[in-house]
Amino acid sequence: MIEVNFDGLIGPTHNYAGLAHGNLASAVNAGRTSAPRQAALQGLAKMRAMIALGLPQGVLLPHRRPDTDWLRSIGFSGSDPAVLAAAARDEPVLLANACSASAMWTANAATVSPSTDTSDGRCHLSVANLTTMRHRGIESVQTERQLRLAFADGRFFAVHGALPAAFRDEGAANFMRLTTPEGADAVEIFVYGEAGAGGFPARQDLTASQAIARRHGLAPSRTCFAQQSAAAIAVGAFHNDVVAVAHGHVLFAHEQAFADPIALHAFVRDRLPATRIVTVPAAEVSLATAIRSYLFNSQLVTLPSGDMALVLPQESRNEPTVWRWLEAEVARGGPIRRLIVVDVRESMRNGGGPACLRLRVQMSAAALATVDRRFLLDDAACDRIEAVVAAEWPVAIAPDDLGNPDLWLQCHRARAALLDALGFGPDAL
Fold first, then answer.
1. Which of 99, 224, 356, 411 does the annotation list as catalytic?
2. In terms of CB atoms within 10 Å, which end of the chain has fewer, N or C?
3. CA dist., res. 173 & res. 31, Å (int)
4. pLDDT score of 234
5. Cα(first)–Cα(last) distance of the chain, in Å?
6. DSSP secondary structure letter of residue 72
7. Among the options 170, 319, 329, 346, which is catalytic?
8. ∠ CA 294-361-176 to the nearest 5 degrees?
9. 80-90 vs 405-421: helix axis angle to the nearest 10?
10. Buried b / exposed e across 362-401, counting CB within 10 Å, b at 16+?
11. CATH fold label, 2-65+100-421
């Protein structure tokens, strides 16, 4: 099986509106001036770094923003400029929702079960509905359009639309998969929360996770539903991938990530005895520090050499207790052999680290050969994207700029230029 990370390119409307209740980084930075061009270039540099490591890399594209179709659905009418002008005048918070670039965090795009796990032998992708947050609930229609285009071959892929709104589903950010070292067997772990924990909303509910497992045809004996700890949610772990990450035969998590870690570990070890569970003790790195530094919102990847690397945000490198623990872990000879630091500061300030920016899709070589090549990156494609971003993306967006008609026009023009550069028609996505 080949794992491809599909990173979200940060869109031209990237701004700090502070819309995500429970996401502490988003709240702290609300009202600041953002740097969309720098943000997109930082994300693209991370994608280039993964390619340079010899890892397959894909991209998912920014959604159309501002989203005038959504504004029309809630009662605004007229031409696009008239709709946006009315929203800016009468409902600026709704306009901010319509401008959100949050689709860049593609860990929330869908939940993915590889073909080796499913009853029909196809890779299943379930689009997340993201209904807990208004600005994110807008995303599912455009996300589904991209996934259906990228993974169109029904012999290898099954793309499911979003669950009904009553089932809160936030995608792969609350999902982990572990395998044997050689990848022959696997377990899928769905992590859910209890509503209202710590005063913050639990973004993933148990019924949504169960529905996706049924849809994907997963074997109950190899499917686990684990509850996120209330303490983690209360301190700002709005998704499980802020306190835990899994890859291959390694589960890397904070001591306080799960409500019942003993039961989870027992489930995994019973089915996959070779699993390496790496736990960061609260006595060495507090839960608050882990969340602030996004230690666990990192990418665990297997390099072509076979070594496992942890791709971390610069913020983790800058946190002394975090970096001290990581260096000691590498020195102990554990499964994580390399630490690779990337700069995704603009995304981090809005509440998303390296892991938030990518959706992992594991597939066979035959399946990969059918993926729409426009969503797969090489250096030449990165060059084309970089040229468009450098020429078209806004340099800065202050809070009051969201009501500026010139910004709306620039952002629509920027996305159109990107679609053209990558070979998509103006109405393809």
1. 356
2. N
3. 26
4. 85
5. 28
6. H
7. 170
8. 50
9. 130
10. bbbeebbebbbebbbbeeebbeebbebbeebbbeebebeb
11. L-arginine/glycine Amidinotransferase; Chain A (3.75.10)
Residue 43 identity: G
**Beta bridge partners of residue 192, listed in sequence order:** 227
Q: Let me know if 135 is a catalytic residue.
A: no
Element (H, E) at 397: none
| Closest among 104, 125, 82, 113 to 15, alpha carbons compared | 104
Q: What is the pTM of this model?
A: 0.96
Catalytic (active site) residue 14? no
Contact (Cβ atoms closer than 8 angstroms) between residue 133 and residue 139: no
Nearest 5°: phi and psi at 319? -95, 110
Q: Establish whether 249 is a catalytic residue.
A: no
pLDDT at 245: 97
CA distance 13 to 7: 17
Of 41, 21, 4, 22, whose CA–CA distance to 347 is shortest?
41
What pLDDT, in 10s, does the model give residues 227-240?
Answer: 999 889 888 888 89
Tokens of 210: 């169960």
CB 297, CB 344: distance < 8 Å: no
φ, ψ of residue 196 to 5 degrees: the values are 80, 5
Q: Rounded to whole angstroms, how far apart are CA atoms 297 and 348?
A: 10
